[in-house]
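We both want to read discrete structure tokens more fluently, so let's practise on a single case. Would you write everything just below, so we can both look at the same thing?
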Amino acid sequence: MKYETVIGLEVHSELKTESKIFCGCSTKFGSEQNTNVCPVCLGLPGVLPVINEKVVEFAVRAGLALNCQILPFSKFDRKNYYYPDLPKNYQTSQYDLPIAVNGYLDIEVNGETKRIGITRVHMEEDAGKLVHSGTISNSEYALVDYNRTGVPLIEIVSEPDLRSPEEAKAYLEKVKAILQYIDVSDCKMEEGSLRCDANVSLRPVGTEPFGTKAELKNLNSFRSVQRGLEYEVERQTEVLEEGGRVIQETRSWDENKGVTLSMRNKEQAHDYRYFPEPELVPIVVDPATVESIRASLPELPDARKARLMADHGLSAYDAETITVSRAMADYYDAIVKAGADAKVAANWLMGDVSKHLNAAGKSVEECPVAPAQLAGLIELIAKGTISGKIAKTVFEGMWDSGKDAQTIVKEQGLVQISDEGAIVAIVDGVIAASPQSVADFKAGKEKAIGFLVGQVMKQSKGRANPELVNKLLKERLALV
């Protein structure tokens, strides 16, 4: 029997506010353990929470960017459960009246666009962090750091519209891009500011009812999301094909072993005994405020991709690659604004620039070559001052020194040789020293000229104009 995969994602994103959601404690990552805490976020008796207005603004901003309806009236609720990283024994969250509902976003997988529904976006406080002595399943002990307790979160809950691990990965990448574009979260998965839980189930193809789902936790990278879901689909398929029954449970992804492990039975909503938070007033968002926030939204990834394709003639692949990151797209726009050819700029950005950034472990914001400097390099190529090959050497110098292209070309004497007389002398010398290649070319082996071109470029230290080299070689070979 063939099964259809059904996936829904719950994305938790920490908001980049300076203070926590209900108190004035710092949200700075990496502080000494249990130093960014106070009686409010530790839930000590006699304290009262006060909502951080910036959290509401960021949540509305995210809801609008995800095409949601912003509810004019929402409230906080207590989600009751006991866990060592939750000092109050409940989490202040939103349940039946969240800040935003009924949204969607479009993803593209294998050339096909698909719309994924978003059930809700709600605000809540983060829990603390358990530091285990080993993996979750085999730790001898765990330590608790409450610095993260009370850091503001939004949770983005998708509809169960995803049908493959590849779609889930694409959805998560799009959510991350949107949150970064609107500047409400830094989305650093390695620091836990973007986390994802996945609900996955199987059902026979052609049937409507959903199968029994398992929730996967500890998915801390895009790769983990895809690998964890692929494993879980395989595991559930084996269970069903052997006549077994999938149990509704929460499972942890073990990155090192590449398997999911059972943690506990999956809770239902009623298990949390939700009830309205009595110490916080409801939130009323004025429609004028919503429209003001909507007007302040930047150009989002899909719109930017469409603009790059329409205005600059980029392919869908190139435009998609560049607009995945707002910082990358901003860098690209700055290169073009500085006068560079749009397609050449895209090639350099996705080629040498990205290669150097990846090798150095840097983000595009940390690139030592400014957009205007890269535009200057591209201009030297367009003018014929340097060849494309020399340009790569020049870029290396720009990366290492921070100097502009013109300076490096002048200092290192890298100006391209376009004087026919100078090149002819080299060409004639190469022809005289390469009788076999000349004979091969005369015999109709066109590839032989490639060797001769290479020899000319080598003797000119890469400075000879390649087009002129090809032209002169063919002319001189015709005379031999």
